[in-house]
Amino acid sequence: MTTHDAPSPQRPDPWELPDVSDLVIGVLGGTGDQGRGLAYRLARAGQRVVIGSRAADRAAAVADEIGHGVEGADNAECARRGDVVIVAVPWEGHARTLSSLTAELAGKLVVDCVNPLGFDKRGAYALVPEEGSAAEQAQALLPDSRVTAAFHHLSAVLLKDPERERIETDVMVLGESREDCATVQAIAQLIPGMRGVFAGRLRNAHQVEALVANLISVNRRYRAHAGIRLTDI
């Protein structure tokens, strides 16, 4: 058989994702709206979830409110206990929080969902961190962690709504490792209606983070909770 006749290697199915059911998910900033909503949805799907806050008692109180077995701890303990740690802190505290947790997050898969935004009389607008994006700032501050970017475009209102069974949206996942991205995609797909979609390397996180400013404008104009749905996949 000539080289031209040799069968091409079969590409893996991009929708074949790993089993993540045994992973503990830590959520830094789990007492805020976005973090609380993600914790609620993942715990409701049967995942073990620990939320973090600067104050352990505050995290414990919010965990009790969320229910579904969610536990609360201070940020350092949350980072230690999580196999995968979602960063959902306000942009203003992003660098400070991560700088204080380099040891606890070493070797961990970190999922940054922080959107650097500014607000003025004309509405929301994207900020450009020195590193290029919040996710790239996280990678610079956490050289011993595996950083991905995901969960940027989710409505906290929908996440926290117990009457909403499904959230029909796609989660764009970016990172340097396909395996790590696949893990985050699988975590996203624990939530009914969501799809986790690989969307490129971490260097492309800025435009994904910045798109939230557009969604805020959409939501204000149409009184909606818009998300993102990618076509033809």
Which labels suit this protein?
233 residues; Rossmann fold; 8 helices; alpha/beta; 8-stranded mixed sheet; two-stranded antiparallel ribbon; 10 strands; 33% helix
Report strand order across the widest sheet. Answer: 3-2-1-4-5-8-9-10
**Global outline:** globular
How many H/I helices?
A: 8
- Structural class, by secondary structure, is alpha/beta
Largest sheet: 8 strands, mixed
> What is the CATH first-level class name?
Alpha Beta
Distance between the termini: 35 Å
Tally of structural domains? 1
- The percent of residues in helical segments reads 25-40%
What is the N-to-C succession of helices and strands?
EHEHEHEHEEEHEHEHEH
Question: Please, could you describe this protein's structure?
Answer:
The longest helix has 18 residues, at 205-222. This protein starts with 23 loop residues before the first strand and ends in an 11-residue tail after the last helix. The protein has helices at 33-44, 56-66, 75-81, 94-99, 134-141, 156-160, 178-188, 205-222; strands spanning 24-28, 48-53, 71-74, 84-87, 109-112, 117-120, 123-126, 146-149, 169-175, 194-198. The protein has one domain (20-222): NAD(P)-binding Rossmann-like Domain (Rossmann fold, 3-Layer(aba) Sandwich), CATH 3.40.50.720. By secondary structure, the chain is of the alpha/beta class. The chain has an 8-stranded mixed sheet. One of its GO terms (cellular component) is plasma membrane. One of its GO terms (biological process) is copper ion import.
